[in-house]
Specification:
The protein is mostly helical and 139 residues long. The chain has a domain at 52-139. 67% of the residues lie in helices and 0% in strands. The longest helix has 22 residues, at 76-97. The model is unreliable at 11-16 and 18-34 (pLDDT under 50).
Length: 139
Amino acid sequence: MRSYRPRATSLALACLTLAGPALAQNPSTTPATPAQAPSAAPAENVPTPPADNQTFLDGLRRVGVMAGQVVECSPDADRQAQISQAMDLANRIAIHFGLKAAFTFVGALGYGSGYPFDKAGCTQAIDGWKQVKAKYLSK
C-alpha cells in the first residue's frame, strides 16, 4: 500500500509557503481621506480581475489536474522534479493573480495526483504540461 503522507506533507508546506506572506501583511491603520475614498459609481469598462473570473479559475483547475496527472505518470526518480516545477508555477500564479488563483491551482494539482485515472492519457497530459512549462516557466 502506497503512503500518501510525503505528498500530503509537501502539499501542506507549499500551501503554507504561499499563504505565509499574505498572513504577515498588516492592514493600514490610518483611515482613508475623502480624496482616497472609492467612488460610489461603478466604473465602466473595468475588466474583472482574473482571480474572480470563473473561466480563468476553470482553466487553472484543468492545468492543475493535468499537472497532477503528470506527477502520477512520472517515474519515481523524476516525480520530485515535476512537483517542484508545479510549485514554481503555483508561486508565479500567487504573485501575478493572488492566493485564490494559486490555491485553485494547487488544489487541482492534489486532486489530479490523488484520484485514479486512465494511464493511457499520460502522453497527452505530459505533452500539455510541457507546453505550459515552455510558455510560463521558461521566462
